[in-house]
Amino acid sequence: xxxxxxxxxxYNASGTLDEAMQSLARQTFTDFxxxxxxxxxxxxxxxxxxxxxxxxxxxxxxxxxxxxxVGALNAGLKACRAPFVARMDSDDRSHxxxxxxxxxxxxANPQVGVVSCRVKGFPxxxxxxxxQAYIEWLNSLLNDEDIRGEMFVESPLAHPSxxxxxxxxLAAGGYxxxxxxxxxxxxLRLYLEGICFAKLPETLxxxxxxxxxxxxxxxxxxxENFLRAKANYLGRGPLAGRDAVIVWGAGMMGRRLSKHLARxxxxxxxxxxxxxxxxxxxxxxxxxxxxxxxxxxxxxxxxPVVLAAVGARGARQLIRQQLVGYGLREGQDWWSAx
Length: 338
Description:
alpha/beta, 14 strands, 36% helix
């Protein structure tokens, strides 16, 4: 049995598959298998995979009718024979030391269920500003505390960068179709179950940017569906048992998140904003208060929570400073949600 199974779903990847496979063939750690799932490709992907299988004995090819990423991932996961599973996409490139370093980390840290690494976007001339900003945020979250602390901001792990314990993911129900991103859904479920995350400081994956990426073409990755995912798991986790939810942010992000929280039955109590034009007005029938009035509102309730939901760049850190200054504890009294 191999030490690691590399799980790689493939769909119409003929233009990038060779690069991905070559990066796996160059791994310094060699005791692994590649489980490639051809999800009903209609270009030359099938032929390329068959050609690779003829010369790469570690490649196991699964061919199936096109069903989509969740079905392909679960079929591949079921076929993986190793106790550790490395995700890899058919358009990315792994550093030669990736498998060696991530496996060694998991073996040395049995309390960790998922380990990621820093990533780099490529080709450099196609990496958009928003994608680069997201990568820089991802790469700043290196330990379990930081990853869990910003779990509700965005997906804190690049899916094709992770290696996880197969039994941990199977126990959580594998990949699930919920109408929002399947990887973020998995991290959120593992978060609620108390699974420990980690991220290596080395840059071990080159993450391809291109217009056909699922994050750009699949509606499950829309902002609205990310907010649905957040609201669902906030309700099952940090908001469970609370008697008041105070949303810091009466702008677009706070308004849209609060819509989904209300649908979850969250006990919304008030909005906080720093814009004097908004303070004193209402949002969803609830008062918009100033930051200075937050503690007075906080003390009205037995078990309140604050959600910081301002999308402007740099706002999260400013809100963090103010809430910490009030003596509120991140991850207990308040969470970042944008």
